[in-house]
Amino acid sequence: MTNKSEVRTALYGQTLLAGLWRENPVFRLLLGMCPTLAVTAAVKPAFTMGCCVIFVLVCSNIIVSLMRNLLKPHLRILMFTLTISTFVTIADLFLKAFQPEMSEVLGPYVPLIIVNCIIICRAEACASKNGLFVSIVDALGMGIGFTLTLCVLAGVRELLSTGKIFEVQFMPDAFVPWAAMSMPVGAFITLGLLLGLVNMVTKKEA
Amino acid sequence: MDTLNILLVGFISIVVVKNLVFTKFLGICPYLGVSGRIDMAFGMGMAVTFVVTLSGTLTWLIDHLILMGTPLEVTRYVCFILVIAGAVQLVEMYLRKFFPSLYESFGIFLPLITTNCAILGLCLFINLWGINSLLEAVVLSFGAGIGFTMAICIMAGIRENLNLADVPKCLKGAPITLITAGILALAFMGFAGMIR
Amino acid sequence: MLKIKYFIQQSWLLIVASFFFGLLIAVTNAALSPRIEQNKINKRNRLVGALLPEAKNFVLETEIEIDSIQGKKEKIEVYKAMSEGGECVGWSFNAAGSGFVDKIELVVAVDKDFEKLAGFDVLSSNETPGFGDQIKYDDYRDQFKGAPAEELKLIPSGDPKKIDAEIVAISGATVSSEAVVEIINNFLTQIKEQMQKKELHGGDEQE
C-alpha cells in the first residue's frame, strides 16, 4: 500500500515539475507566444495574465477530465473550445469586477486566452486521457510554468525600461532607461535572446 | 467621397501602421512556424486573409444584429469563437467538394488557423474600436490579412537568406526569427503617427 | 425519426454542456455586473474629482452628437458635476482621438460656465514611454488647468507656467502633444456650441 502511494506521489511530483522546466510551455513547447509578448511590458499585468491562465487551465482540465468518457471523437474540439471560452468569459468578468485597472491594461488579450494553444493542447493531450487528479496537477504545472516564464520576461523588460519592478528601484540612479524594452521591439528581442539562452543551457545538460 | 476616404485611410493604417504582427502581437505562432519558405508563407498569408475577412464580417454582423445592447452581450467571446470555427469548417468542406485545386493549395493551413489568435484578435479589436459600418469592418479585416501576408512574406525572404548565414547554434530556429521580427517591428515603427 | 435519434445520440453532451455553461456565465454576470458598473462610476468620480475638487457626484445631463476628427459621428455623454449642496460646479465628458501610436482617451473637465478648462486626465493611451507618455504627467497637464475654453494652439517652445490658450509641446513628442490639443479642441468647441444652443450651461436650466 505504501509503495503504491509513494509511486503515485512521485508521478504527481514529476508531472508538476515537468510544466516548470522540462516541458515549459513557452521555452520548450513554443506555445502561447502571443500573450507572452503582449502583456510582459510590466510584471503586474504578466502575473495577472498568468493567474487567469492557471484558473482557466485548471477549470477546463477538470471539466474535460470529468467528461472524457462521454466525448464523441469528432465533436471533441468543439467541446474543448466551448468549455475554454466559458471559463475565459468568467475569468474576464472577475477581472473587470475586482481588478479594473489590470483589465484595461490587458484589454483584448484576456479573451485571447481562448485561442492560447497551451490550454487546448493540454486538454487534448492530457485531460481527455487521464483521471481527475492527474489532470489538475498537469494543469497546475503548466500554468505555474507559464506564469513564471511571463514574470521572468516581464521582469527583464520592466527592469530595463524603467529601472524598477513594482515601483521598487533596482537599478542605480545613473542608469538611463531603455525605452525600447517596453515596445514591440524589446518584446521580440528579449524573448528571442531568452529562448537562445534556454537552448544553450539545455544543450549543455543534454 | 468621405466614406471612401475613411476606408482608404483605415486600410492603409491597418496594413502598415497598426500591423497585426508587429504592433499587436497577433498570429505569432503561424508566423514563426510557416515563414520558412516564401511560397508556403504566401499560401499561409492568403489563407489567413480569406479566413479573417470572412470571420471579421460574420462576427461584426452577429455582434451588431444580435448581441449588442442585449443581455446576451456577455456571451460574446463564446459566440465569436464558435462562429469562426464553424465558418472555417463549412468553407473547408465547400472548397474540398467544389474547388479541389484551390483546396490543395491552401487546404492544410485552414484547420491550423482556425484557433489562431490573429482571427479572434482581429474580431475583438474591431469590436473594441467601435466600428459602426459593415463596409469598414470588411475593409479592415481584409487589410489585416494583407498586412499579415506582407509581414510573413518579408520574414520568409529574410529567413531564406538566414539559412546561409552563420547563426550561433543556440539561436537557430525560433530565437533568431524572433530577433529578426524585433528588428522588423522597429522598422515598422517608422510608420507610426503617419495616419491620424 | 431515426435520424433525429442519431443526432441526439451524438450531440446530447454538447447540448447539455451548452445549457450548463450558459447558466454559469449568466449567474456570474448577474453577480458581478453591479460591481463592474460601480467600478466605472468610481473611476470617473476619482479622475474628475481631482480636477474639480468640489464635485461630489456626477449626473448624466445629456448626450450630444458631434463629428469626430476622422469625420465620423459620435454620441458623447456630458456629465454635470454637482457639489454637496446640489449646485453645478462644472461639466465633464470623455474625448478620444488618434495619438502617435494608438487611440488616446481623455476625460475633460470644464468649469460651470464653459469658460475655462478645469483640465484633463488620460483614461487610456499607448504612447511611447518617456516621450509621448509625458502627456500623463503634471508638467504637461497643468498647462490646461485654467486655460480658456476655446481653440487652443500648440507652440513648440515657451513658458509652460503661463496659463493661456497656447500650450507648449513636449520636446520629442510633438505628435502626441498635438493629438491631445486637437482632441480637446475638436470636442470642446462642438460640445460648447451645442450646450449653448441648449442653454444648459451656466448652471441654470430652462424647462
Description:
The complex is a heterotrimer of chains A (206), B (196) and C (207). With 206 residues, chain A is an all-alpha fold. Chain A has helices spanning 2-20, 33-38, 43-67, 76-98, 100-106, 117-127, 132-162, 184-205; strands at 164-165, 168-169. In chain A, strand 1 and strand 2 form a beta hairpin. Chain B has 9 helices and no strands. Chain B has helices spanning 2-17, 28-34, 38-67, 76-98, 100-106, 109-114, 117-128, 134-162, 174-188. Chain B is globular and about 60 Å long. Chain C has 207 residues and is an alpha+beta fold. Chain C has one domain (49-203). Chains in contact: A-B, A-C, B-C. At the B-C interface, helix 1 of B face helix 1 of C.
Q: What percent strand of chain C?
A: 25-35%
What is the gyration radius of chain C calculated from CA atoms? Answer: 23 Å
Q: Quote the distance from N terminus to C terminus of chain B.
A: 18 Å
Count of separate DSSP helical elements of chain B:
9
Unreliable stretches of chain B (pLDDT < 50, length at least 5) are none
What's the total number of strands of chain C?
7
Which sheet architecture does the biggest sheet of chain C show?
A: 5 strands, antiparallel
Annotation, overall tally of beta strands of chain B: 0
Secondary-structure element order of chain B, N to C:
HHHHHHHHH
Number of helices of chain C: 3
- Portion in strands of chain B: under 5%
What is the average of the pLDDT values of chain C? 80
The largest interface is: A-B, 42 and 41 residues
> Between the first and last Cα atoms of chain C, what is the distance in angstroms?
67 Å
The average pLDDT score of chain B comes to 84
Structural class of chain B: mainly alpha
**Fraction of residues in H or I helices of chain C:** 25-40%
Order of helical and strand elements of chain C = HEEEEEHEEH
- What would you call the structural class of chain C? alpha+beta
The global form of chain C is: elongated
Features:
heterotrimer, B: 9 helices, C: 207 residues, alpha+beta, two-stranded parallel sheet, 7 strands, 27% strand, disordered C terminus
How do the helices and strands line up, and which of them pair or pack?
The complex is a heterotrimer of chains A (206), B (196) and C (207).
Chain A: H1 2-20, H2 33-38, H3 43-67, H4 76-98, H5 100-106, H6 117-127, H7 132-162, E1 164-165, E2 168-169, H8 184-205
Antiparallel strand pairs in A: 1-2
Helix pairs in contact in A: 1-7, 3-4, 3-6, 3-7, 4-5, 4-6, 6-7
Chain B: H1 2-17, H2 28-34, H3 38-67, H4 76-98, H5 100-106, H6 109-114, H7 117-128, H8 134-162, H9 174-188
Chain C: H1 2-51, E1 57-67, E2 73-82, E3 88-98, E4 103-111, E5 117-124, H2 138-141, E6 153-155, E7 166-168, H3 174-197
